[in-house]
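Researcher: I'm preparing a figure for a lab meeting and need a structural model of a single chain. I don't have an experimental structure, so a prediction will have to do for now. The sequence is pasted below. Please return the structure as C-alpha cells so I can convert it later.
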Amino acid sequence: SSEVLRLVARSASLRDITGGSSGLTGFSQGFYSLNPLGPGQYGIGPISYNENRAWLLLVGWTLVILGSILVYLLMRSPWGRVLKAIREDEDAVRSLGKNVVGYKMQSLILGGLFGTLGGFMFALANSSVQPDNYSTLLTFFAFTAMILGGAGRVLGPVIGAIIFSSFFTFLENVLFQAVANDVIPTSLMNSNQVGIVRFILVGVLLMALMIFRPQGIFGDKKELALDAR
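Model: Understood. Here is the structure written out cell by cell.
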C-alpha cells in the first residue's frame, strides 16, 4: 500500500499538491528561522556542524528522547500491559472484554505518529522531499535498524539506527578506499560496483544476525516466544 501511495504522489495529476516526481522544496526556511543558535560551528572535538545543522540535530535528538520516554511510560502503563497481553494471546485478552482491534489501532496510530515525525526531520535535513525518497529501500533501513537493536527494547531501534547508519557509511568508505588503492583488484570489483557489494555484505550480515541472535543486539530472547503455551 505504501508503494501505491508513492506512485500516486509522484503522478502528474497531483503536481500542484505533491510536486509530482520533482517533489517539494523551499519549505525549511521557517524551521531554520526559529534557530536560536548564532552563526558559527558547533560540536565536540573534531566533529562540528554549522548553526543550521546543529539546530536540526538538537531538535531531532530532542524528539528522539521525548519519544523514547513516552514509549517507556506507555509500555509500563495499563495500556502497555494490555498490548503485551495481546501479543501473547489476543483471544485470552478478548475473552476478558478488551477491545483488541481498538488497542491495535491505537498502537498503529502511535507508530504512524513517530513515523511522521521521522519523515518531518528527514525532509528538513534534505531541504526537499520527493516521493521517490520514500522507497522500499527506506523501509528496509528502518526494519534493519529495529532488528539490529532489538524490537523488544525501547532504545533498541534508536541504537540500532545509529549502529546501522554508521556501519553502512563506514563500509562504503572502506570499499571505495580498497578499490582506489588496488587492495581489491578491479577484476573482482570496480568503483561502480561498491554500492551493490555493500548491500550484499549488509544482507549477509543481517542473515547471520537473524540466525545467531534473532532478538537483536539488545533484545531479550524471551520476547521472541510469542506463544509459549
